[in-house]
What we know:
Helix content: 55-70%
Strand order of the largest sheet: 5-4-3-6-7-8
Largest sheet: 6 strands, mixed
Number of helices: 18
Order of helices and strands: HHHHHHHHHHHEHEEHEEHHEHEHEH
Number of strands: 8
Amino acid sequence: xxxxxxxxxxxxxxxxxxxxxxxxxxxxxxxxxxxxxxxxxxxxxxxxxxxxxxxxxxxxxxxxxxxxxxxxxxxxxxxxxxxxxxxxxxxxxxxxxxxxxxxxxxxxxxxxxxxxxxxxxxxxxxxxxxxxxxxxxxxxxxxxxxxxxxxxxxxxxxxxxxxxxxxxxxxxxxxxxxxxxxxxxxxxxxxxxxxxxxxxxxxxxxxxxxxxxxxxxxxxxxxxxxxxxxxxxxxxxxxxxxxxxxxxxxxxxxxxxxxxxxxxxxxxxxxxxxxxxxxxxxxxxxxxxxxxxxxxxxxxxxxxxxxxxxxxxxxxxxxxxxxxxxxxxxxxxxxxxxxxxxxxxxxxxxxxxxxxxxxxxxxxxxxxxxxxxxxxxxxxxxxxxxxxxxxxxxxxxxxxxxxxxxxxxxxxxxxxxxxxxxxxxxxxxxxxxxxxxxxxxxxxxxxxxxxxxxxxxxxxxxxxxxxxxxxxxxxxxxxxxxxxxxxxxxxxxxxxxxxxxxxxxxxxxxxxxxxxxxxxxxxxx
Length: 525
């Protein structure tokens, strides 16, 4: 009777000391890395990366001082994998990237996924395009080792050998002889493989190099070259993700926290958007925007504390004044020099309505006007979200497009989608500023959600003829005023029709703050 052989999968071991590779949390981190790799367009082959490699790289970013175990090279693959991990962990770029991720699970997952994606892409390029055939072969083997394809190929080869042995046995002595021949051949192959793994292969690693015609030092250098590019790309990717994550948190609005599982894909889409990257570079003064976003209070004796005053109102007396001796207290009271709480209620803020010129003159081949306009609009959106204000914008060229409404209650995913769409618009078409202002005023007059609006912000290069009197008339009908942000242009009629008129010949932090200060003025309802 034929005996059925059951093959047992050999447990893979990582190279880091003190890591519990079977821990459920580490399993989960590896799953998250796999999910990210599937979404990264550059990681075409990274979906199949072995779990043990994902766990090793994640742990390398997460642990404060990851320690590599003493090497035990049972095969050339083990030598190459050890060198890959050792050089990764010891490289300066990897250490710098770990400074932002150590003991932080989400940054470590992002860093690991970005690094693996970049490494696999570099391996693909070397395997297909390097002029040195030995390097191409090494890159191919490294890729197969990290994706588990070597094991698959070895298993397929073993199965083919077994089938061939069975056929030979059947030809020589019938069914029983074939089975004996198959078993004998399998035993011989197993013994030979064991000898290669534990005996002669160690001599190859230590004396002749791991194979591929390259010495140990040559293999180390090839791996070093591969890692430099992968780490550099990973650092750039992680920096972009961190910047976009901060941007996304601002868009989420007050009282919202980032959810890694539900929002990461949207953040990743934003990070890949070229215009978003450029806009974030222009908005490198974002930490300073909060300085002009201040709560405004209307005095009210029973309101919340918003600071301190000097006076004699005992209802607002600071608790610290009660510790003074009676004589000193009476003196300060008589002179009106008591420290008082300043109390008030927070004023509600009106909405922002922004018109953005997307005509051909704004977006010519050498023009950065449309990028400036979009960066200004995004900054205004971030201020609106921080202050829990409604935000409305529309693009226009010959005709106005549909108004996009981002309300206080708008879900953060929808906010991120609107911001992405805003950043993706290109400058084309003619210019009709009057139609855009008419459309905005019509909204103010006819739709309830715009009733609280009393100002319209226009961002344009002014490349259109407008009737000053007509503009003033339609603004008056809507009980609205116009703020014009002129981007590298001039329009005297618009200047006369505007309450505020700011001309920008260059764009930077200082100019952006001026725009936001204008938007802040007269917006208390």
